[in-house]
Design a protein that fits this description.
The structure is a homodimer. In chain A, the strands form 7 sheets. In chain A, strands 3-2-1-7-18 form a 5-stranded parallel sheet. Chain A has a 5-stranded parallel sheet with strand order 9-16-10-11-12, covered by helices on one side. A 5-stranded antiparallel sheet of chain A has the order 21-22-25-24-23, sandwiched between helices. Chain A is built from 11 helices and 25 strands. In chain A, strand 14 and strand 15 form a beta hairpin. The first copy, chain A, is globular and about 75 Å long. The longest helix of chain A has 20 residues, at about 445-460. The first copy, chain A, is α/β, with parallel strands linked by helices. At the A-B interface, helix 1, helix 8, strand 21, strand 22 and helix 10 of A face helix 1, helix 8, strand 21, strand 22 and helix 10 of B.
Chain lengths: ~475, ~475
């Protein structure tokens, strides 16, 4: 039995690890396009900021750790074609020669590619000019090389999603003045505007020049750096002179290899897979950012996240060995730290829930993270979305300070969503309490109780049998 | 409709609030034995430590807040008897006169009393001598009065459970040298000895003189303070000279009123109630530390906790108005901060699980709270207990540093236990991840995955269909 995995990131490595764990007699080869298997690309902003002192520390496991599991790694090796009928993977070796690797089972984890938006001049500029995209370790080295060479004092970031926000923090920590340009009405567009506004304030507080409802239209070189033109949605012209431009506006699935082999495309062009991670091509599985995401509330969508890639890869690795497991599905649980704020979400926002056929209603409340009498209590903004008809919990969004245990509070909601709890039933959960860290009804429950009071109190009252009164 | 609640602490107030919320036409009277309704007795250690600057801040709600809900409060009023047939509560007023309060429904939340252990001399000593128990606001004022009067430099605490540990920290913060004496083999006996040992180390690191396997046998007055005799389980004699003694060895249910009215006693003498909080006496409900605890894994037990009292009170308040809800049950979720450590647990430990008919096996592991490459990562000791036959999650214990989000990580396990998840299925949960706050598989999942590897890998391997190889 020879299992071949393509991709050295979360999905490929997770699949390979699971296969080796389940059957140490299985031969496992991982084909990696670069020299950096199992690197944490989520950690790149913290390397750029200087908080991670050496890029090698970004490896989840070292090359030696991976070899010790018994898997073989073929680094700097690019998968060019899948010969499905012949069960062979065609590759280009580091020296330019080609090879065919025979497999019994193949797992494809080619991941995603950074989106290059339509900006005039962007195609003609490169990292040598201080214009960067950021997704891979190669991109990271190019950026640090620019930072060393240019010694920028002014940078402009196109995009204010997770990576854009983390990079705004990272470049600010290096003493660089950051201008951040976001097309949508508010930064962190994955959360409600009223919550994104809190992150916006945090950016401004830390010296970031934030432009929302604004698009970068043109980038050009000047004698001293880069000139950037933009426009607001109102048509107002914007211009900036900076030393460095970073374009981080999201990713698209890297599906070329699979589509050419005959796989089908689904939402946003990602490869359609079953919940078993089967592609429909015999003996070919796929996982991670290159495939669609099964979502427990939305069905089949595309929502690339490292946590999801780990889970999908694990499922693919098990099934490739003859297992019969399925990916349980995503809830889109996400968290980001931006300076001293943490923002998290799980499940659906109202517009997503409406599109999925629910009847969402929401309530935002700001319970303290712990008892106000104990020093250091801070409010957490929590927005609960539930179904008006069934009372089912549909989603939660949380923003608060770094010490407020936001990232693990969202996990309680994620676990509740996993089990299709009602908002009301959250009150039944036996959550922990000590005054320095919580409340007798945890903030998680105070938020759901407020939702119930606003949206279900009349229904609760109607259940009382009036004859006892 | 007149609802009367006895008790100004969690259960009584929670019941009264729920009743007023559900039916603002219901007249609600709360009979409170002292002058401190809705005070957070869990916060007392932080008032003693000086972190809470005024005792009034310990109120969850002020007297005015409570009145604003429309409930009536009768303070310093002691419930002496329940006339069940006549639906009247007999009380002694602050001026010594007696009264009978007619009720349609009665909710009893008399709470618990501190246990006074058998120590020679204890009966003859009082707060005037610097010997204290600690449970109520009255006890708190007596203790602060002693602290002001005696200006102790040396204190001895009998007991190293939650309150004992918090008080060790609180008195240490006041500059008092603390000796802590625990009868059992390790401090914080609610967790495994190997985890309690970490708390022990934290106490020692902060200057507390800890004696485990040791019993205080005698307390007596001297010219300058108090002389305490003890013995180790090996029979070795111990003696201490201190200025203050605090005895905090747990509580027992305060059931006198209900038992005299005809209610039945259950585990540890607590009043037996249905999951509806019905006592079996017509129109009499009870909730909180005076009643038994329905536990989702253990059945009927006694496990007094503020979080439980809040939930039970809420159920009693609703059902007294004609509702038909049940208390969903406790999982014994608890957390305590001891200096810079946080210890938490939920569900069962092995000996409890064995007694309940499970086949528990456990694994302790120490995953980092977040990615090691990001500054400040610290290990969390996590002990997972699961059923060897069914794979069901039975319990989790966690100890780590204060910033490691222990208290909300235990909540993920508590929510999983609520839904009777298997240890293995924890891997399917879509938990949040960002490098400064977590890992792609959160510490919660790394711990459960290690349990699965140790106890179920052979079973997982057996599920692979061998013909695909």
């Amino acid at each position: 039995m020879h299992l071949v995995a393509i991709g050295g990131s979360d999905a490929g490595i997770s699949a390979a690890l699971r296969a080796r764990e389940l059957d140490p007699t299985t031969e496992v080869t991982v084909v990696v396009a670069d020299a950096y298997p199992n690197f944490s690309i989520c950690g790149i902003p913290y390397y750029i900021s200087g908080e991670v002192t050496h890029w090698r520390n970004l490896a989840h496991r070292t090359h030696a750790d991976l070899k010790a599991t018994g898997m073989k790694l073929r680094l700097d090796t690019f998968a060019t074609d899948i010969d499905v009928a012949g069960q062979r993977l065609l590759v280009r070796n580091p020296d330019g020669s080609t090879d065919a690797i025979a497999y019994d089972e193949l797992i494809v984890g080619t991941g995603a590619l950074p989106i290059r938006p339509a900006i005039d001049g962007l195609e003609d500029l490169s990292t040598a000019d201080g214009v960067h995209l950021l997704h891979s370790m190669g991109d990271t080295f190019a950026l640090t090389e620019s930072l060393d060479r240019i010694q920028p004092t002014r940078a402009l970031i196109v995009g204010a999603g997770y990576v854009g926000l983390e990079m705004a923090e990272g470049l600010t920590m290096r003493g660089i003045h950051v201008t951040q340009v976001e097309m949508l009405p508010e930064v962190l567009p994955t959360v409600e505007v009223e919550l994104g506004a809190l992150v916006h304030d945090e950016l401004v507080k830390n010296g970031v020049d934030v432009h929302t409802n604004s698009t970068v239209t043109k980038i050009g070189k000047t004698d001293t750096g880069l000139h950037v033109d933009g426009t607001t949605t109102d048509g107002e012209a914007l211009t900036w002179d900076v030393d460095l431009v970073l374009v981080v506006v999201g990713v698209r699935p890297d599906t070329d290899l699979l589509i050419r082999a005959g796989a089908q495309a689904g939402p946003r062009g990602a490869v359609l897979v079953e919940e078993t991670m089967a592609t429909g091509l015999p003996h070919v599985w796929a996982a991670g950012d290159c495939v669609v995401t099964h979502h427990r509330l939305l069905g089949t969508t595309y929502l690339p996240l490292g946590t999801t890639a780990h889970k999908q890869g694990r499922v693919a690795g098990e099934n490739a060995l003859g297992g019969a497991v399925t990916y349980a599905g995503s809830l889109g649980t996400q968290v980001v730290k931006v300076f001293d704020l943490v923002a998290a979400r799980t499940g659906l926002r109202e517009h997503e829930a409406t599109a999925a056929g629910f009847a969402p209603v929401s309530t935002t409340t700001t319970p303290d993270d712990h008892k106000a009498y104990y020093p250091g209590a801070t409010p957490i903004s929590i927005r609960i979305t539930g179904d008006a008809n069934t009372g089912r919990l549909l989603g939660a969004q949380l923003i608060g300070t770094r010490g407020a245990e936001i990232s693990k509070r969202v996990d309680t909601y994620a676990t509740a969503l996993f089990h299709e709890m009602t908002v009301s039933a959250m009150t039944e959960l036996d959550l922990s309490y000590t005054p320095p860290l919580g409340s007798p009804w945890d903030a998680v429950q105070m938020a759901t109780q407020t939702w119930v009071k606003e949206h279900q109190l009349d229904a609760e009252r109607a259940t009382l049998t009036k004859d006892t009164k």
